[in-house]
Inverse folding.
């Protein structure tokens, strides 16, 4: 497992993290009030040692410096030396602390849940509007983990880590002030010992954690030796290498033993250290306090409060580094999230298009050159020019990797060509709104992937406003109505993850129905019949022919029988058009690529 990377806190990091406050802003009232309650609950908690001192110490009034002298003495109307009053005051203090805590937790939860909801929605909106190039460069798994895990981590931080961090800082500050008021001298003695020991304890703890990890790694290593040799037991036996495997495993196991012994030693030392130093230093402070009490320099009730405040400081300080590390980690994940939010997006309408362009369907490609950003040195499309008239059927053939699917991606404006331009109805693609332009095209892709809903939902994806009748009509046109009606649940049949519960040919017909429903001016079929048996192929082909009627269509095919009647056949090789013409013309070319292909296929 990869170790969570440490993020250095730099200026840029904070800048990115601070853009996050944009999401908190709408809920700043809840945040501020929550903060006030956090302060109140932390402060009320700090009264506890003082009251305990009163309760246990119960001393006679003294003119020595007392914390009560610093706080306006309310004893004219509230006699804290009276035990029952003191108990009532304690109940009131704890009661209010409980109530404050409730509101703090509620308000923090409220603003966190809302801010993260906004963040999730915005991040998803930006991700889904990102150009395909972005997805070529980023792993989907990583992106989903950003939106789920990183945000979850933020939730933790905002809900608890931040609050605890602030509370501990308040605890340290208030305790120190109280300690100082009670006895400046003892306060300095305490400051000289307890925090230092607490910090050393934390560093020590980290060190032990690190060697614990080494032990884990060593034991994982020994497990992998075990697994390897048993999985490859045939190999081991065939080579008579048992002795070698035994030696290998022995070595790994001995290493685990050595590492474990090292950690046992350090852990023992650590516990000894904690008991000796941490408690020792507290005992030392208490001893000093006792000396002062005996000398009449401090009143006993303050002494008890003093001990409690000292314990508070000790625990608070030792928790700070861990909390700080958690905050650091969260700032790191916020930074990564913000990188998503700052990403480029396509200029999309993000709504149902009310007034479609209704293109005539003339498509012109002028000297298109293209290479993928991830492989800039490999020119996938080299100077391709094409003229497709409205209603024509153009076929694209060529060997695997020749750039056919890439060309269709360029047509759909998934990528921008490096040079040259694509015209629709004589106007450059850039002159149209991207969403409106894509709304005029439909693709039946090489690999149909459906959404994990019902068949009906999947067909309706082509036109979200379609009625039930229109959906059925489209399915009939796609030769899909038959098989859909045979399912017990009909159109409400679930297709499973990515459409896994449908056969290849069924998926393709659902995709065709979807395209019919979209009613595009331009149609792209990327090997829509590639993996079908002849009967399904016939059904699909029939549906496709119906779909292509009256539309400009670009058909990519390996099987030449399906494109024989195309208006023009373009032969692509290594991103270049090497031949183009009608079937009858192309088969005449001596040694032609198309002729060779058809000879192989029709032989
Ligand atoms: N997303 C991508 N990033 C980088 N290179 C890519 C990408 N997609 C395709 N390519 C490369 O571009 C070239 C053309 O691929 P394309 O998918 O257009 O071929 P094709 O003609 O459709 O092949 P097939 O008949 O096998 O579907 C190939 O060399 C391929 O490796
Ligand atoms: Mg392809």
């Amino acid at each position: 497992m990869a170790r969570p990377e440490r993020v250095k806190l730099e200026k840029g990091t904070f800048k990115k993290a601070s853009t996050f406050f944009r999401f908190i802003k709408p809920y700043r009232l809840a945040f501020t009030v929550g903060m006030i309650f956090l302060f109140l609950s932390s402060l009320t908690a700090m009264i506890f040692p003082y009251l305990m001192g009163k309760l246990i110490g119960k001393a006679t009034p003294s003119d020595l410096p007392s914390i009560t002298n610093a706080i306006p003495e309310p004893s004219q109307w509230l006699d804290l030396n009276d035990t029952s009053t003191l108990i009532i005051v304690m109940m009131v203090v704890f009661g209010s602390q409980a109530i404050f805590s409730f509101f703090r937790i509620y308000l923090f939860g409220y603003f966190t849940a809302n801010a993260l909801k906004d963040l999730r929605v915005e991040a998803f909106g930006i991700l889904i509007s990102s150009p395909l190039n972005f997805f070529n460069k980023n792993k989907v798994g990583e992106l989903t983990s950003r939106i789920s895990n990183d945000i979850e981590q933020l939730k933790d931080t905002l809900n608890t880590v931040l609050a605890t961090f602030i509370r501990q800082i308040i605890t340290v500050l208030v305790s120190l002030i109280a300690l100082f008021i009670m006895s400046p001298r003892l306060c300095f003695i305490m400051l000289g010992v307890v925090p230092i020991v607490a910090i050393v304890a934390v560093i020590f703890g980290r060190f032990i954690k690190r060697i614990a990890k080494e032990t884990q790694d060593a034991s994982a290593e020994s497990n992998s030796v075990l697994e390897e040799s048993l999985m490859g037991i045939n190999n081991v036996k065939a080579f008579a290498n048992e002795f070698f495997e035994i030696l290998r495993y022995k070595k790994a196991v001995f290493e685990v033993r050595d590492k474990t012994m090292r950690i046992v030693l350090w852990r023992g030392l650590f516990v000894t250290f904690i008991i000796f130093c941490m408690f020792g230093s507290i005992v030392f402070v208490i001893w000093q306090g006792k000396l002062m009490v005996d000398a009449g320099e401090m009143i006993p009730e303050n002494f008890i409060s003093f001990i409690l405040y000292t314990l508070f400081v000790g625990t608070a300080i030792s928790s700070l580094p861990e909390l700080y590390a958690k905050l650091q980690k969260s700032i790191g994940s916020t930074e990564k999230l913000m990188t998503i939010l700052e990403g480029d997006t396509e200029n999309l309408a993000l709504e149902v298009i009310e007034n479609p362009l209704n293109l005539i369907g003339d498509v012109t490609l002028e000297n298109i050159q293209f290479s993928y950003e991830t492989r800039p040195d490999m020119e996938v499309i080299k100077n391709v020019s094409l003229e497709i008239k409205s209603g024509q059927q153009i076929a694209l053939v060529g060997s695997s990797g020749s750039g056919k699917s890439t060309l269709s991606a360029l047509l759909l404006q998934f990528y921008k060509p490096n040079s040259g331009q694509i015209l629709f109805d004589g106007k450059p693609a850039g002159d149209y709104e991207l969403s409106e332009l894509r709304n005029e095209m439909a693709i039946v892709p090489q690999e149909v992937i459906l959404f994990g809903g019902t068949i009906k939902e999947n067909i309706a994806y082509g036109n979200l406003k379609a009625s039930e009748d229109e959906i059925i009509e489209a399915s009939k046109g796609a030769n899909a109505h038959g098989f859909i009606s045979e399912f017990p649940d009909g159109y409400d049949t679930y297709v499973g993850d990515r459409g896994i519960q449908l056969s290849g040919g069924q998926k393709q017909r659902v995709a065709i129905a979807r395209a019919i429903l979209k009613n595009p001016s331009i149609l792209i079929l990327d090997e829509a019949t590639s993996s079908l048996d002849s009967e399904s192929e016939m059904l699909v082909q029939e549906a496709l022919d119906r779909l292509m009627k009256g539309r400009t269509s670009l058909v990519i095919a390996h099987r030449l029988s399906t494109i024989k009647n195309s208006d023009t056949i373009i032969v692509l090789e290594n991103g270049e058009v090497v031949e183009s013409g009608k079937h009858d013309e192309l088969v005449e070319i001596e040694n032609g690529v198309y002729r060779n292909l058809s000879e192989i296929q029709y032989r």
Notes: The two ends are 56 Å apart (CA to CA). The pocket of magnesium ion (ligand 2) is lined by residues 404-405, 446, 526 (CB under 6 Å).
